[in-house]
Design brief:
Blueprint (H helix, E strand, L loop, with lengths): L17 E4 L8 H7 L2 E3 L3 E8 L2 E5 L2 E5 L3 E5 L4 E3 L8 E7 L1 H5 L16 E3 L2 H17 L7 H21 L9 H13 L7 H7 L4 H12 L3 H19 L5 H7 L5 H12 L3 H9 L1
Antiparallel strand pairs: 1-8, 2-7, 3-6, 3-8, 4-5, 4-7, 6-9
Keywords: DNA-binding, Transcription, Transcription regulation
Protein name: AraC-like DNA-binding protein
Organism: Pedobacter zeae
Length: about 280
């Protein structure tokens, strides 16, 4: 059973945790927006599709520019920061959680971001289809008691279109070993702070350690160990941004490091900054 993580007061449907925002629909009040602050650790999936014009989003501290016929997606636990400036002339923002995904007939590998790309460009024809799907969802979500199954049908079409574009436009429609790599990423996400051993992960995926190394290296460009370290540092940065008063010792223990000193050295090696320096940048 999927765990509900979507704020109940944001859902636009009585039976589903989902919300859509367009230039003229779906915006929350200034008072409600103030409750979330200028940065939010996302508890749900977030999409921004720009049909015309341009926009920008700050995800995990990185500013991403989104142009015409482009879509940005962000995953649960990433930190979304309000970007300066407004959105383009025509856009759709969509949010939903794992409860919606659990009710869809298939899985969507792009949501694990195996190619490490969160911005997708669409051909004009694909962008038109995507815009139509967003438009229908927008119409359905204007009435809170519309049939959830109808909404899910169009959400399924929308995610199918996005999944196809994610892989086809990066010329990697079905890379060899992708299923195993997705399994590796999923296992790492589910067990990140336990810092599982590479041998344990390989065994879970029915691979040799050499086989796991080859697959992870092929799809990410780094070794399994390096992948886990980079993911841990990303998680550290998210927690530091969201909880700036956490001590180095507390943060290290939360992430599964028994030695805070080693964690501090590792953080500097990966980011080029000390933890104190990173905190200082956050306060500016």
């Amino acid at each position: 059973m999927a765990i509900k993580t979507f704020p109940e007061n944001l859902s636009q449907n009585k039976g589903l945790p989902i919300r859509i925002v367009t230039p003229e629909f779906g915006h929350i009040s200034a008072e409600s927006a103030a409750q979330y602050g200028s940065a939010q650790r996302l508890p749900y999936y977030f999409f921004l599709f720009v049909w015309q014009g341009s926009s920008s989003e700050v995800i995990d501290g990185e500013t991403m520019e989104i142009g015409e016929n482009e879509l940005l997606f962000a995953l649960p636990h990433q930190v979304r920061q309000l970007a300066p400036g407004g959105h383009g002339a025509d856009y759709y923002k969509l949010g939903f959680d794992n409860e919606c995904l659990a009710r869809l007939p298939k899985k969507f590998p792009f949501l694990l971001n195996p190619l490490n790309r969160q911005k997708i460009s669409f051909t004009p024809d694909a962008a038109r289809r995507l815009s139509n799907a967003f438009k229908i969802l927008n119409e359905l979500l204007r009435t809170a008691d519309n049939d959830p199954e109808l909404i899910l049908a169009y959400l399924n079409s929308l995610l199918t279109e996005i999944n196809a574009a994610y892989f086809v436009l990066h010329k990697k429609p079905a890379p060899e070993g992708l299923d195993k790599f997705l399994g590796f990423r999923l296992f790492v996400e589910d067990n990140l702070t336990e810092q599982p051993a590479i041998t344990e992960i390989a065994e879970k995926l029915a691979l040799s350690t050499d086989g796991l190394y080859r697959i992870v290296k092929q799809h990410s460009g780094v070794s399994p160990k390096e992948f886990i370290i980079e993911r841990l540092i990303i998680e550290a940065r998210r927690r530091m941004y969201h909880e700036p008063n956490t001590s180095v010792k507390e943060l290290a223990f939360e992430l599964g490091f028994n030695d805070p000193g080693y964690f501090s050295r590792l953080f500097k090696k990966v980011t080029g900054k000390t933890i104190a320096g990173f905190y200082q940048d956050l306060s500016l």
